[in-house]
Design a protein that fits this description.
- By secondary structure, the chain is α+β, with helices and mostly antiparallel strands.
- Helix content is about 30%, strand content about 40%.
- The protein is built from five helices and seven strands; from the N terminus they run H-E-H-H-E-E-E-H-E-H-E-E.
- A seven-stranded mixed β-sheet has the order 1-2-3-4-5-7-6, with helices on both faces.
- Strand 2 and strand 3 form a beta hairpin.
- The longest helix is centred in the middle third of the chain and has 15 residues, at about 90-105.
- It is globular and about 40 Å long.
- About 25% of the residues are buried.
Length: about 160
């Protein structure tokens, strides 16, 4: 993973990852409310830290992004992958996604799934660039200012890690 981190770091500061802890939730929520019009609540994140695999991306001792992954037999599901808007388009989201794929493959997972807002073209471009393919649509999945927005379902088959 260190080669990926160096390849994708946005400047001279090294990008690193660690497990998310409850103490991180204040910083995570600051990013969440900046990144989304309908953010998760701190309660949702508390539940995720207790029950799912969660990581933060660190740069200059600050959290610049995070990811939440649900593992199940044979598959994993990206529940949230976010980067501070001030740090977007610098490769941090790609590095987080690759971390999730690597961690999934290490546990023998065959496929990784995710949903993305139909309107989030930059995320869709990233997922397609990383080899994800569209499986279908969840109608009205996300809350939106004018009602509900569809989610595009994407998946990628993983090669098990040796």
């Amino acid at each position: 993973m260190s080669a990926i981190i160096k390849e994708l770091a946005s400047n001279d500061s090294e990008l690193s990852f660690r497990t998310m802890h409850a103490d991180d939730l204040k910083q995570v929520m600051e990013i969440e409310v900046q990144a989304y019009t309908h953010p998760w609540t701190v309660g949702i994140f508390k539940d995720c830290v207790r029950g799912y695999r969660c990581w933060v991306a660190m740069q200059d001792k600050a959290i610049v992004g995070y990811a939440v992954l649900m593992m199940a037999p044979g598959e994993s599901h990206v529940l949230n992958l976010s980067v501070n808007p001030e740090h977007q388009r610098k490769g941090i989201g790609r590095a987080l996604l690759r971390l999730l794929m690597e961690k999934s493959a290490q546990t023998g997972v065959d496929m990784i799934l995710l949903e993305v807002r139909r309107s989030n073209q930059s995320a869709i471009d990233l997922y397609q660039d990383e080899g994800f393919h569209e499986l279908g649509v969840r109608k009205g999945y996300y809350p939106a200012d004018d009602g509900r927005e569809d989610a595009m379902i994407y998946a990628k088959y993983l090669i098990p890690a040796d």
